Amino acid sequence: MTAFPHVNLFATGENLTRLMRLRGVSVKALQEELGLSSPQAIYKWKRGECLPAIDNLVAIALLLQTTIDKILVIEN
Fold it and tell me: Are 46 and 13 in contact (CB under 8 A)?
């Protein structure tokens, strides 16, 4: 059986945090840009508890002037 790659949630959260800091984007600003009612989802993403939905991930990449593959950490 072939092992499929998986997303390292914790490392991805660290990437998101680093990129937000690098671009000067606050949690509040990201929340407003994504149209989220509260910042809780963003904190969960940053802690590596879960991933953003694909539409939010695309928007985050655009806002942070990067690509999705530079946000996600994929491991075998």
Answer: yes
pLDDT in tens, the chain (76 residues): 778 999 999 999 999 999 999 999 999 999 999 999 999 999 999 999 999 999 999 999 999 999 999 999 999 8
**Domain limits at 18?**
6-75
Q: What is the CATH number of the domain that holds 25?
A: 1.10.260.40
Count up the domains in the chain and report the number: 1
**DSSP H helices in the chain:** 9-23, 27-34, 40-47, 54-63, 68-71
Helix/strand/coil for 48: coil
Do 15 and 22 form a contact (C-beta atoms < 8 A)? Answer: no
SS3 37: coil
This prediction's pTM: 0.92
